[in-house]
């Protein structure tokens, strides 16, 4: 009785591993046990065949689903994937390594052309908005210059009334192969340049590209709570793909203008507010404008020192795609008068005559320490 080794165990992967993890594990093992690196070693040859068989199954979503459900029984008695000789399986599997390493350089992978039509490029647009716009959210329009689908040929690249035909050189695959020893070298078809089709009569508007330069006006919806660097994606609004291939995406990068009053830290807004020394000493109340446009009363406790922070709950920025708002933190700065009237000076002189040192314990203690340090 033959014991079948689990495919995941062969590749050293968990059953929940994604395709990228499985492919990476296969490449390492296939390179390690490949016959060209282990000439005449039967054990390495057997391991290479086992690794290739495991990857041939797990790389295909349908085969993998069947294997996860039924195990090796899914491929017995003419099941899925049966019928291929071991030699062909090994050779095709190692071709996947070559494709993964050199595929982009060669202009497309196996089965390229129309089946792997290259989508258009993603584009970037930088937008500057105010902090108020970030707070409230807004809808705005932007104008971008981008290549779009050619209206004359509907993106096909062929002149109206004509159509592209399958490339006879590559049979529509977009790539041709040539065997060089053990390797199969794959490169873009020299006739269709990887498109898989040949256009006999190119469209006069786009010259066979299927796309032309256009100016588009797009609506951008900015949600409340966005921060500097927030990225908004507009699907399919990037560069059009050649000859009907899907378009790329347009990414809007937001930049928040510097605000006259507030500095932002996440959902918290910081503001600096100067107060008079009499308000700091006696206490009182000041008002500053909130980010929502409503005045915010700030209570000042008697004896407030410069640098004290007063936190206003819910006075900050909204949570992006969430509920509630952050806080507003007001940093109080006590301002000393620069000019005094004669009456004000008289009153302050009278106040100084009544000082006992308990009014300002920090300064009194500081000078007492200096006096002690200086030897009394």
From TrEMBL:
Binding site for Zn(2+) 2: 167, 170, 189, 192
CDD domains referenced in this protein's UniProt entry, alphabetically: DnaJ, DnaJ_C, DnaJ_zf
GO molecular function: ATP binding; heat shock protein binding; unfolded protein binding; zinc ion binding
GO-annotated cellular components: cytoplasm
J domain residues: 6-71
CXXCXGXG motif repeats: 150-157, 167-174, 189-196, 203-210
Entry cofactors: Zn(2+)
BP GO terms, sorted: DNA replication; protein refolding; response to heat
Primary localisation category: cytoplasm
NCBIfam families xref list: DnaJ_bact, PRK10767.1
Subunit structure comment from the entry: Homodimer.
Function: Participates actively in the response to hyperosmotic and heat shock by preventing the aggregation of stress-denatured proteins and by disaggregating proteins, also in an autonomous, DnaK-independent fashion. Unfolded proteins bind initially to DnaJ; upon interaction with the DnaJ-bound protein, DnaK hydrolyzes its bound ATP, resulting in the formation of a stable complex. GrpE releases ADP from DnaK; ATP binding to DnaK triggers the release of the substrate protein, thus completing the reaction cycle.
Protein name: Chaperone protein DnaJ
Species name: Stakelama sediminis
Gene encoding the protein: dnaJ
